[in-house]
């Protein structure tokens, strides 16, 4: 339980740490720390995926952390979306015609990888819920698919937690 909670909290805070590193004073310190942040991001993502997959507890606990992490990341995703949109709207400036699409694609990849990492909690909760008998096959398939798309993943996480808690109270 402790490793699940610790890795989930680290994942909740990790994107915001990356933004904070961009605002460090001094050019070299911020650059060095940011270059260290990139490989550490892969390690944090891998650690969370492994922790979610190796969790031996109930599906409800995984679904709870899935929803909590996704809710914590909403401001991060909105910020990247708005900044990316601002770059795309600034393409009227000739210097940004080539840079803006690249920045928008980088932001999209960052958001998608973060969403898939958090979805590992939800997908594993869906599999465990199906195995425990608290989710039907159809509900498990729909909730699993919802965890693969933006915005739908948060809706799917809410529905998943509600269904798992309702079934737990009934039994």
Automatic annotation (TrEMBL):
Membrane spanning residue stretches: 7-26, 32-55, 76-99, 105-127, 139-162
Protein keywords: Membrane, Transmembrane, Transmembrane helix
Any Pfam family matching the protein: DUF6652
InterPro entries: DUF6652 (IPR046594)
Protein's UniProt name: Uncharacterized protein
